[in-house]
Amino acid sequence: MAGYSELMQTIAAMLLFSLILLNANRMIQRNNMMQVEGELEQEVVALAQDIIEEARATDFDENSINFVPVNLPGDFTESGNLGPETGETSRTDFDDFDDFNGWSGTITTKHG
């Protein structure tokens, strides 16, 4: 009978140890996912800031390129005509800020 009691204690200890290991594994996986999500979020924010800085480095409006508008706001492009002009099909072709109006694109990084 004494051997049976020790066997039950061993089984209970193994069960308790396996539950602890499962919870530790779950916690490690959750921490890894949070770390990866944080890295992806930082990368996406950096890419967005790069695009914003690229847009800010250009002139505001097609009509204000190489000259300062005299009649404000009359010299600016009408709101219905904002966006890329003819021939400006990619971000590298954009020469003023309003070309970014409505722009969308897919950027591939090493993470996806």
Low-confidence stretches: none
Taking Cα atoms only, what radius of gyration do you get, to the nearest Å?
30 Å
Strand fraction: under 5%
Query: Mean pLDDT score, rounded?
Result: 84
Give a nutshell description of this structure.
The protein is an all-alpha fold. Helices cover 49% and strands 0% of the residues.
Report on the architecture of this protein:
There is one protein chain. The protein has one helix at residues 2-56. With 112 residues, it is mostly helical. It starts with a helix and ends in a 56-residue tail after the last helix. The mean pLDDT is 84.
Task: Write a concise keyword list for the protein shown above.
single chain; 112 residues; 1 helix
Give the secondary structure arrangement, pairings included.
Elements: H1 2-56
